[in-house]
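Think of the structure tokens as a kind of shorthand, similar to the way a musician reads notation: each symbol stands for something richer, in this case the local conformation of the backbone. In the example below we present two proteins back to back. Begin with the first one, reading the sequence and then the tokens, and try to describe in your own words what changes along the chain.
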Amino acid sequence: MKAIQINNISLNYGKVSALKDISFEVECGELFGLIGPDGAGKTSLFRILTTLLLADSGTATVDGFDVVKNYKQIRNRVGYMPGRFSLYQDLTIEENLTFFATVFGTTIQENYHLIKDIYQQIEPFKKRRAGQLSGGMKQKLALSCALIHKPSVLFLDEPTTGVDPVSRKEFWDMLKNLKAQGITILVSTPYMDEASMCDRIAFIQNGNILSINSPEKIISDFPHKIYAVEAENNYEILLRLRQNPAVRSVFSFGDSLHVIFNDDSRHSALDAESPRARGLRVKPAMTNRNKGIAGQARNDGIQFKQIQPTIEDCFMSLLNE
């Protein structure tokens, strides 16, 4: 039995299609990531799977229970942490946790072992009101409340949005520990760097699933050579490369540009044997062989080198297909 099974789910908000014939499965005990920008359809799918929203068509099951017919059973078996902090701001940490434990007919003491590693980090502040907590502490409290009834499946909707880098790392360490306890986790995020921490990921954009696989497999299957371009005026080069018919895609990535060509074999200026591919500075006028891209730079020097693709490169390439 699959922990989560989604079959041809579609959802419309008036004339806007939020989800378009979505289908995929999540294995029991898997840490599965739903990766995509804001407005891609992640939250709508989460709300359907947690029985808070009805799809227009298609079916879905969680732990073997249908999200429409067996919504009561699902609500007792899942934990849900929405993207927006939704606990009671005027209650203390301890009061919020006690409330959610009581709703599910349990106590903090009974399931303390589930939240111990997380709750111990905020327990010294248990008398502090939730509205006065930092972003990282709010996320830890929300996760504790989602776990207090011992769910078999955990839904986390963009749990690290707006959280500092240290708290983000701590949060993902906590998710790995929960996975080790056999809890199935479906997590959404707009951060591409978090994708590598999942067992498998699904890219979603405009309500469509673009690709599903392990992060390692997605990267290894990337079909194009990709080059990093660095110069003193990256923006000028970005505009010129986007006008070049030989360029398949180019976008900013930190302090460099990532470039993919329509036909790698035809662009000897970026061949692995050329000086630029080895990361050396080359002036545009040096050789005819190298003038193809560098000649557009209007710069006294430019750096080219072939690089390994990242998850973000794979996602951006899928958007252009």
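Once you have a description of the first chain, move to the second and do the same.
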Amino acid sequence: MNKQLVFYYYNSKRGLFQAVLSRAATELERAIGQVAGVEGRPLARLRAVLDAQFDFLAANPDLVTLLMQAGRSEARPLAPAIRRLVVLLAEGQGLGDVRDDLDPHLAATQALLLMIAYVGLEPLIATSAPQLGNDESTLSQRWKDAALKLVLEGVSAR
């Protein structure tokens, strides 16, 4: 694609970047939407959504790199994913499954950030903490399991 085509279709490089972020948001929402039909208590559904989010992000490391560079993007690529987590957390609060002293927006954002940061920084983490990187073949799964446990136990009212 040449520069003239970028400006023709997107008005600027920034416009192209926004379009890519919007598409990424749609793909992430589609990936987690596949687990939207999961039944059960809010924490069980939250686990399923977080699991799907992590798997999507881990399978798309280039997208994670883009997200980490997005800054205050007008595309708001993470808004649908955060909103889905907020709804589950608030529902859990209403049923007594999630701590009442928790801000659902903050907890949802932190859970997603934990996953994005790990996927984006996995090589640095593996080399900086040799005990984690000793078995790199299982590192991603171990991290996902630990992150899900950290988030779920952190928000649980029990």
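Compare your description with these statements about the second chain. The two ends are 55 Å apart (CA to CA).
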